[in-house]
Amino acid sequence: MRFDDVIVLCGPDLEPFQCASFEVQGDTIKHIQKTTPVSVCDGAKRVIIPGLYNSHTHMGDSFLPDGTTGMTLEEGFFRPNGYKYRQLKAAKRPAHLEAICDHLHYMASSGTVCHIDFREQGEYGVDLLREASDITGVDSIILGQFAELPFDDAELAASSKPLSESDLAELRHILQKANGFSESTMNDLTNPAWQQIRELTTELGKLRAIHCLENEGYRDVSLKHTGRGDLMRAIELLDPHLIIHLTVANAEEIELLAQHGKTGVLNPRANANLALPLPPINELLNAGINLLLGTDNGLLNSPNMFAELDYTYKLTKSQFGDPRKPDPAAILKMATSNVRPALGGDHYGYLETGLPASFVVLDFGAPHLKRSRHLLASILTRVTPAEVLETYRLGKRIA
C-alpha cells in the first residue's frame, strides 16, 4: 500500500513534511520519502497523521447517549446506585454489544485507532468490550473493575480492611483478561486493598489507573477517612500509570504529579458537561507533566477526538491568556505521541519508517482546509470526522 504526494506528520514532534510517498508493508511503515518540511497546505490534498488515541472512555454506557442530562456527578456516575450503574445492570447483552460496536465504529471513522477503557461489570464487562474490539478492529486497552464494591460504608470510612480471598480471586480473573485495573475513585476501596491491587498488577505486568480530583469531594472524603488527599493516596498506595481528570488540582498537587513523573489524562468536554471546574491545562503544561486526552463517558460525549482537541486547544489558549500559547503540537501530542511514555510496547502514537502503520488520511482538499496557513492548527480546530478519508490500524483499514 502506497500513498503518493502527501503531507505526513513525522516523528514524535509531529513535524509536517511534503512526501513523495508513504509506503506500508503489512503492519509496518516501510518507507516515508520526505522531500521538504511544510507548514501550510499548498497543493497536497491529503494529509496523513498518526492514528488518534482516546485515553479515557467508558464504552459500557454508550447505549445511554445524554442519559444523565441534568444530573450531578454523584447522581449519574457514583457506585453503586448512580444512574449509569443501575442501567448497566439492566442492559441485555445483544443490544449492549451492538451499541458498543456502533460507538467503536464511529471512533474509527473519526480517526481513533485505540482507546483506554475503564470497563465496569467485572469479568463480564471485559469480555463484552473485547468482543466489540475484535469485531470493529479498534484497539481496546481495557481496565477492569470489581463487579460490585467489596466494602460497605463503615469499612471504607475505617479504611483498614483488606480484600478477601474471594475478592482477590475475582481480581485475578479480571486481570487474566483485561490490560489492567481501575476502580472509580480512591474512596471506593480501602488503603490495604489498594496496596494488594498494586502488588498483584505489578506481579502480572498490568496497567493501573484512577480517577482523581474530579471535584473537591474526591479530596475531602479521602482526607476525612484517611488523613490523606486522594491524589497523594493514589501515588503512595497505587502508583498508577494514568491519573484521570485533575480538574481541581492545586499547585501543591501539580508539583506532586511532576515530582513523580505521572501521566495525567484530561477530559475537559466531559467536565464542562457536568458543570465541573475545567482542568488547569496551562499549569499542568508549565509543570512539564505528560498529558493525554479522553472523551470520558459515552453518555456524556460523542467519542470524537477532533472535538476534544478543538475544545482543549481553545480552552488552553484562554487559560494562558496569550495568543502564542500553547504550541498546537503540544495539544495534538495529547492524542498521539504522548502515549509512548505512558503505554510503551507497540504504542508509539507517531509515524516513522519501521514503526506500526496506524494512521489517518485526512482530506485537506476540502473547501475549508485547502488554504490552511497552519496545518497543525487546522487539524485541531477545523478537521471533523467528515474529513477522515481512511483510518488504518497496523496496516489494516478499519474505517
Task: Walk me through this protein's architecture.
With 399 residues, the protein is an alpha/beta fold. The protein is 38% helix and 23% strand. The chain contains 16 helices and 16 strands. It has helices spanning 73-77, 83-90, 93-109, 122-136, 153-158, 165-177, 191-204, 216-226, 230-238, 251-259, 268-273, 281-286, 305-320, 328-332, 339-343, 375-381; strands at 2-10, 15-25, 28-37, 46-50, 52-58, 112-119, 139-144, 180-181, 207-212, 242-245, 263-266, 290-293, 296-297, 359-363, 388-393, 396-397. It has a nine-stranded parallel beta sheet with strand order 12-11-10-9-8-7-6-5-13. The protein has a seven-stranded mixed beta sheet with strand order 3-2-1-4-14-15-16, with no helix packed on it. Helix 3 crosses helix 4 (122-136), helix 4 packs parallel to helix 6 and helix 7 packs across helix 9. It is globular, with a radius of gyration of 21 Å.
- Judged by helices, strands and strand pairing, the structural class is alpha/beta
Can you list the strand order of the major beta sheet?
Answer: 12-11-10-9-8-7-6-5-13
Terminal CA distance reads 16 Å
Count of discrete alpha- or pi-helical segments spanning 4 or more residues: 16
What is the helical fraction, as a range of percent?
25-40%
Major sheet description: 9 strands, parallel
Kindly provide the radius of gyration, computed on alpha-carbon positions and rounded to a whole number of angstroms. Answer: 21 Å
Q: What proportion of the residues form beta strands (DSSP E)?
A: 15-25%
Instruction: Give the integer mean of the pLDDT values.
Output: 97
Number of separate strands: 16
User: Which residues form runs of ≥5 with pLDDT under 50?
Assistant: none
Tell the overall outline.
globular
